[in-house]
Amino acid sequence: MNAIPVNAENKYEVLVDCNWREALKEIAKSRTRVGIVVSASLRERLGDISLGDCDVHLFEIIDGEGSKSAENLQLMWDWLGAGGFTRSDVLVAVGGGATTDVAGFAAATWLRGIDWIAVPTTLAGMVDASVGGKTGMNSSFGKNLIGAFHSPSAVLIDCEWLSTLSDRDFSAGMGEVVKCGFIADAKILEIVENNSLAEIRSSRALTTELIERSVRVKASVVSEDFKESFAREILNYGHTLGHAVELHSNYCLRHGEAVSIGMVFAAELAAATGHLSDEIVARHRRILVSLNLPTSYARDAWAQLLPLLYLDKKSRGRQLRFVGISDIGKTFRLEEVSTQELTQTYERISQ
Ligand SMILES: NC(=O)c1ccc[n+]([C@@H]2O[C@H](COP(=O)([O-])OP(=O)(O)OC[C@H]3O[C@@H](n4cnc5c(N)ncnc54)[C@H](O)[C@@H]3O)[C@@H](O)[C@H]2O)c1
Ligand SMILES: [Zn+2]
């Protein structure tokens, strides 16, 4: 097990490849009350949830994106109230990114903030959603529009969870892993190039190394820039077009799949504007295809995608802002791209 420090508004550690139950027992020793929020389909896998002398409360939450709603928050606040949760108590979120986002937000808002611990159970949750302190929920106007920065007090990554994850969700999580490779850690890309997807999935050592490297990338970026100026923006590599296709697909695409398409677009755009070699663009496609991730999107979607690009949080006024790379691990801000360049680049990634 390795402990990766994060120095955000509070300091905490991400324990990679730990036994989450043992780690939680240790943490619970200093608490009187622990609230566990668990994704419904994982409830049975929790088994016995007693934690020594602790008073343990359980809240089962519906699976996936639908849980990030005002109705669910109301139910969680009522549960916390009925359980008499105080500022010295702790909430534990067990589930994918949707569960850690919404339970983290409940922790951020109850009594203006109580401690919470993330136990991510998907690959995307382990390498991305649970680290970084962003918590939130959806509004009827869009995804993640309501939220708060509220770092967990620990992140417990137990790779055992991954055994039941669908192949599709594993690949989608790998999209965020290779993103960390492109923006900061060439070794991630080498590992993915030298091992097949099946080899990575079946090897605990390889999976753990990839998770650890990705968490290190995110932890170092977040430690440098907690509340998102440019340093943190690099984590958005591939996300400008990615968010647009995710929304356009009506969330039929997984986030990591949409980011995969977005990274190919960002690479093509950097090449078209003279910043990146064709070889690295080809490397994007080779790696992403080897992970069973999509690298193109419907040609006739462009007219609807272009306005969606302007909803990106990085855009300023009428100015779109992309994260580009000029080499592996070298990021820059890609601005002042004409609509014509965008359209031509989209033609290269669409079919
Ligand atoms: N806070 C952040 O910084 C941040 C970053 C990235 C993504 N997110 C959020 O994370 C969410 C996406 O996360 P996700 O991809 O983990 O999706 P998810 O939480 O919706 O989980 C996907 C599905 O996998 C199931 N599942 C979870 N663990 C499992 C396991 N071990 N075995 C089998 N099935 C399992 C879930 O029940 C769900 O049906 C989105 O809501 C996104 O907005 C947040
Ligand atoms: Zn992402």
Automatic annotation (TrEMBL):
Residue span(s) of domain 3-dehydroquinate synthase C-terminal: 173-315
Required cofactor(s): Co(2+); NAD(+)
Localisation per UniProt entry: Cytoplasm
GO cellular component terms, semicolon-separated: cytoplasm
BP GO annotations: amino acid biosynthetic process; aromatic amino acid family biosynthetic process
InterPro entries per the UniProt record, alphabetical: Dehydroquinate_synthase, DHQ_synth_AroB, DHQ_synth_fam, DHQS/DOIS_N, DHQS_C
E.C. code: 4.2.3.4
The species this protein was found in: freshwater metagenome
Pfam family, one: DHQ_synthase
Keyword entries, A-Z: Amino-acid biosynthesis, Aromatic amino acid biosynthesis, Cobalt, Cytoplasm, Lyase, Metal-binding, NAD, Nucleotide-binding, Zinc
Gene3D superfamilies: 3.40.50.1970, Dehydroquinate synthase-like - alpha domain (1.20.1090.10)
Protein name stated in the entry: 3-dehydroquinate synthase
Record-linked HAMAP family: DHQ_synthase
Known pathway: Metabolic intermediate biosynthesis; chorismate biosynthesis; chorismate from D-erythrose 4-phosphate and phosphoenolpyruvate: step 2/7
GO molecular function annotations of the record: 3-dehydroquinate synthase activity; metal ion binding; nucleotide binding
Catalytic activity as recorded in UniProt: 7-phospho-2-dehydro-3-deoxy-D-arabino-heptonate = 3-dehydroquinate + phosphate
Family: Belongs to the sugar phosphate cyclases superfamily. Dehydroquinate synthase family.
3-dehydroquinate synthase N-terminal domain ranges (all copies): 60-171
